[in-house]
Design goal:
Elements lengths: L7 H21 L7 H6 L5 E2 L2 H11 L8 H8 L4 E6 L7 E12 L11 E8 L4 E6 L7 E2 L10
Antiparallel strand pairs: 1-3, 2-3, 3-4, 4-5, 5-6
């Protein structure tokens, strides 16, 4: 049986090189979008977007269409206030896509008030393209339709 000698400094150098390379790649990745809890921590309530931002969002809403990707949505509406991953209740189909929310008004972060809380929501399918855009703000009509899921057999 042949015996190979590998000095400890070489082994440690190799480990540090690969570990450092992996860390550098991780830090180069874009930051994930904030979740709802991040939005709550960084805003005071009752919350209302500025009149200028509201006007901009309403004006740009007409530029939205089905099939846009996240970069295109960011170019039109800006960064969302928060994002959520969407999953089916059943094991299949599993991951459905993501939802981005642009909050216009929110009275209480612990409650959803359908009369006073307003927002624009952009739903992306699992391929990352816009499937449906909806708002409960007057004058902003829905674009597209929600994704239909196959019914489960009983």
């Amino acid at each position: 049986m042949k015996r190979y000698f590998c000095p400890l400094p070489i082994v440690l150098s190799a480990i540090l090189f690969f570990f450092g390379h992996a860390c550098a790649q991780e830090s180069a990745a874009p930051d994930p979008l904030p979740g709802y809890n991040d939005f709550v921590k960084t805003h005071s309530f009752p919350y209302a977007v500025s009149a200028e931002k509201l006007s901009e969002l309403k004006e740009n809403f007409s530029s939205l269409t089905i099939g846009l990707n996240p970069s295109q949505i960011k170019a039109i509406l800006g960064e969302p206030d928060y994002a959520e991953s969407l999953f089916s209740k059943a094991e299949e189909p599993g991951f459905l896509g993501t939802a981005w929310t642009y909050v216009l008004e929110k009275t209480d972060p612990r409650l959803t008030n359908v009369k006073t809380d307003t927002s624009i929501q952009v739903f992306f399918n699992k391929d990352g393209n816009v499937q449906w855009i909806v708002s409960n703000t007057a004058g902003l009509d829905p674009i597209g339709t929600p994704q239909a899921l196959p019914r489960q057999a009983d």
